């Protein structure tokens, strides 16, 4: 089966970056592109929320929240013990992995659509839900519960960050407007989605290529962690999905979310709230290793894993 | 109290730092009673590596403040103290004249 | 009936602005978005112009021109007498209200389409027509007829301003190319229109939120004026529409145009030609009060008014 | 028959430029627009390449490569002998005319689609092929074969320039993904193509208007050359197309490519590799004369010429 | 007559004002026979409030002119006289050296 | 060896040139052992005409380098020698102080 072209755009970006081409998305274009992606994912989740009673989703939302916290608490001791990172750095990296990457989610959704595998339409809602708890736990791990005063500002930075406002805002707009309401804005936010994602992945490829050098300098631990942690996350995500009774497609998506590491909301929040944490560590790992790993190898692997898991579950 | 750059000799304090702290930095500057500054989006390189400016995490700003000579050093020190430990930051000061 | 999502984007922008989120459209994206809107409205008007003999529309064009002048001359004494504004400030604000807001027009057209209420397809033409006379009258009121020399430059600023070139240019392109000709550029300029309008309104919401503070400082008069003047305008517009025999939808649109205040062409022209006029007054009122008032409350109200008026006319 | 609206956008740009309007595309928007155009043309070529055995196209690719070299070698002595240009300037201008203008190609393809004249779908491939040889020959003419050392860097600049990476990258993505694969990104890269081309031509019009002054100063030779050279190119292109047995549409396209002068890849490469060549000469001629000449008069003329040629060929 | 910045001591005149007057300002500068300047799009704050740069009405530019010391003060005064009454405007002058 | 701007007196070298040579220029600067600079996208006018910045061929950059006074002149000369013959280029130097 052919490769999804959006992945090819990522590969093109990496190649251009390694060839030292001067190609780059101008900053305002990158902002436009990521704005459309975030709003679009939010809108999709909101439209689904409008379709079913929100209360019915509460148990799933709770489970996903707990999953975000558990993943952060799993990653932290690994980084602290095996990786010998300082407390703040371990906490920051752990929070990135407990949180979620919108771009990876979009690639996985595209992967399923491309193969005509259905999934629960409210999955984008979980992207929004999963962004937050890991960041809060990460900050707690980094700073302890001591400095009360900064919490207000921290919550403000997390909840009023650009990406969060667009995701949650899109969700609310989609929820209030509903399926019929969003028809008129579909051509921009839904039809163009894959094309815009292609441009986004092109830039992500260029950025990832730029992080390769930094990664080699920081030693092999992060390279290994950046591929092992997604696998742990995918197993956890698959188990949660089974527990929630999600479909095959939904299982693949939740596994991918758990496996993915944030590179938009988490870096922005940590930069402001825990500036001592070095962004080079978390970004190089999440963007330079985990993101390409997930979109090229991970998603097909989680697909295979979800198939096995669904089969085994059927047997029991 | 609000102070604006008065005519006569002054200092130009140029602060280059991460775009992420724009709001915090401006709050700090305004807390010193300074309410004149000019901001440009820039990119660059320094002791904390290359900042390409192409996406959020790598975006830099340059804030130029023209103020009375006596306040320039204080401004620079306060900003350094607050932001240098956690962020990419570079400050330089030039003599200026407000006509 | 559900709320149009484009309005929700405006509300999202206001909310994000008030929450002091760092969300903002980068300047080049704002320019792209407003370019597409202006060209699109011009193109639509031009395509209609191509369909019917331009001469037939002359009486309507003349009536709309007179309406723009009358509205400016109505607003000026109100601002001068009741508001105690200086001559130049009163003239500038009056000109903003005699002119028209492209964004408000677009929202009203979307409102009608959403409710499947038809309207004369040449209405965008009136947007173009209505931009100009109020600005010229406003400058005359501010400066008198004295300084001959500056008139050439003033006309140049008004007619060669970015927004005017795009509106009139789009109109001419649409006129020359005609319905068939513009088919190929429809996906960008027509299909994406509502999505692009949503992004525009998001930014307008952010800007409007920023003007709230300024408004409170300038006292209550402008707050009242910013809501009373649209009502006066809407009544005038409805009457003109009845006189011209427009349909229900056309009446709503003309009332909305009359009720709306410019925040693109008029500010740009006045900044260059009458710099003594303080833009804070006119912009805070037109963007901070009249624009949200119109899109949230005004348009449904003018719809109701137009229905009444059409019924009364039918009775006579 | 109506004029294609994309041409009207160019005319609008020229008019706005001459009227000294402040209208301009912000630089990041120009970059986005040209990125989409280049990727789109590459993708289209790649999809076709996927459809037919690449080997079958080899003879055509070779013929087009030779055509690019011949055109450069034809233009050089004209510029050196008649135009009395310095060696480097003559070489630079010649390379621009041996290379190809993506915008002109897009206008010609739109012209044919508009008139429902079919053409070989792999023509975009030739755009990519034709970009390169003229630049290399031009640099050879300018610098001789002497300075070995700079060749590596020169090839890097030519092959890793932004426009080349996007064209070739799009081609490879389209090739690997194939017709089915690119379906999901069609709305952005294919459906919006003409609208995006309209914005591009608007900016090209503004730029061309700015070059009019420079052109008059550089004397009449370049004015004449900028119209004569496309005619020579079109004749050569038509002959090559006949030799290759292309359809009517394919003949028009190849003639137009041969007639067109590069203003993206060639200027960028020469600026870096042969900085002594004055860009004012080559750009003013290619953008200020040849580009408008081709899109307004040239393409219909080459259409007429191709019809004659096809008829004559039929007779033999 | 056209004058360019000559090698040796010079002045850097930095003019921050509203983007709306770019054309008028450049015409004024060129009318003084100066034909070298560099423009950047900026945002900022001053006595006439915050200018966020996000849309036309709030866009600012910074025009940097390096010129002979004798012309710097004249340029600054002329620009101030013409534009300060109606527009947000801030000017400062630094010593410079053209190598 | 890598040198960063040290605290104390310094020079600000501002280089305005064509965006096309950004990579080459930075390589030249780094070859002198300087690894601190700030870049802004600008437009302007000079002896080689107007550069509107609206598309590739007309794009300009401004590279600001703060360095030790002894290196400023050398940097300026080296950049002039390498780029002035082929490219639009303007350099000016100001006294600066790194706090
Ligand atoms: N010597 C210098 N001259 C000019 N700009 C500098 C210099 N050093 C640092 N910068 C700027 O300041 C930012 C932060 O510097 P740093 O914290 O040293 O990485 C860099 O990304 C540059 O934009
Ligand atoms: N003291 C200052 N230092 C740096 N920039 C300033 C200063 N004062 C004003 N500006 C800039 O000049 C613009 C206009 O100033 P003003 O007319 O005072 O509002 C502001 O928006 C700032 O960008
Ligand atoms: N006197 C000057 N003051 C400020 N900037 C200048 C000056 N002269 C030239 N420039 C800038 O340097 C660029 C190249 O200059 P030139 O090589 O003289 O055309 C111009 O496009 C301007 O942006
Ligand atoms: Na995760
Ligand atoms: Na009105
Ligand atoms: Na050619």
Automatic annotation (TrEMBL), chains A, C, D:
Swiss-Prot/TrEMBL keywords: Membrane, Transmembrane, Transmembrane helix
Domain of life per record: Bacteria
Pfam families on file: Sbt_1
Residue ranges crossing the lipid bilayer per the database entry: 57-79, 91-111, 123-142, 154-176, 188-208, 220-246, 252-274, 281-302
Coiled coil: none
Protein's name according to its UniProt entry: Sodium-dependent bicarbonate transport family permease
TrEMBL record, chains B, E, F:
Top-level taxon in the UniProt lineage: Bacteria
InterPro entries: N-reg_PII, N-reg_PII-like_a/b, N-reg_PII/ATP_PRibTrfase_C
GO molecular function, one term: enzyme regulator activity
UniProt record, GO biological process: regulation of nitrogen utilization
Protein's name in the database: Nitrogen regulatory protein P-II
């Amino acid at each position: 089966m052919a490769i999804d072209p959006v992945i090819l755009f990522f590969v093109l970006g990496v190649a251009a970056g390694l060839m030292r081409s001067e190609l780059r998305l101008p900053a305002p274009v990158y902002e436009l592109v990521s704005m459309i992606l975030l709003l679009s994912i939010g809108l999709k989740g909101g439209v689904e929320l409008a379709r079913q009673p929100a209360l019915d989703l509460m148990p799933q939302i709770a489970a996903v929240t707990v999953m975000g916290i558990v993943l952060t608490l799993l990653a932290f001791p690994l980084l602290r013990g095996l990786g010998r990172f300082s407390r703040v750095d371990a906490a920051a990296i752990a929070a990135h992995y407990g949180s979620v990457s919108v771009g990876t989610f979009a690639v996985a959704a595209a992967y399923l659509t491309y193969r005509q595998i259905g999934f629960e339409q409210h999955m984008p809602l979980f992207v929004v839900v999963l962004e937050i708890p890991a960041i809060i736990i990460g900050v707690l791990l980094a700073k302890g519960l001591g400095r009360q005063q900064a919490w207000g500002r921290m919550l403000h930075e997390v909840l009023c960050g650009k990406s969060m406002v667009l995701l949650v805002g899109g969700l609310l707009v989609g929820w209030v407007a509903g399926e019929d309401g969003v028809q008129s804005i579909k051509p921009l936010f839904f039809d163009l989605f894959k094309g815009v994602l292609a441009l986004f992945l092109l830039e992500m490829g260029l950025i990832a290529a730029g992080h390769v050098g930094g990664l080699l300098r920081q030693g092999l631990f992060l390279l290994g962690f950046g591929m092992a942690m997604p696998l742990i996350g995918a197993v956890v995500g698959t188990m949660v999905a089974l527990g929630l009774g999600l479909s095959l497609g939904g299982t693949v998506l939740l596994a991918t979310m758990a496996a993915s590491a944030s590179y938009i909301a988490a870096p922005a929040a940590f930069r402001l709230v825990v500036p001592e944490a070095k962004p080079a560590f978390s970004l190089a790992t999440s963007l330079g290793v985990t993101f390409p790993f997930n979109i090229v190898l991970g998603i097909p692997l989680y697909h295979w894993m979800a198939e096995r898991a669904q089969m085994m579950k059927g047997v029991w | 109290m609000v102070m604006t750059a008065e005519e006569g000799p002054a200092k130009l304090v140029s602060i280059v730092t991460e775009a992420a702290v724009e709001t915090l930095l401006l709050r700090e500057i305004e807390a010193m009673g300074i309410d004149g500054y000019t901001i440009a989006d820039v990119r660059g390189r320094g002791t904390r590596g290359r900042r390409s400016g192409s996406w959020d995490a790598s975006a830099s700003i340059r804030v130029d403040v023209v103020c009375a000579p006596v306040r320039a050093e204080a401004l620079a020190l306060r900003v350094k103290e607050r932001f240098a430990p956690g962020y990419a930051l570079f400050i330089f000061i030039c003599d200026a004249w407000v006509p």
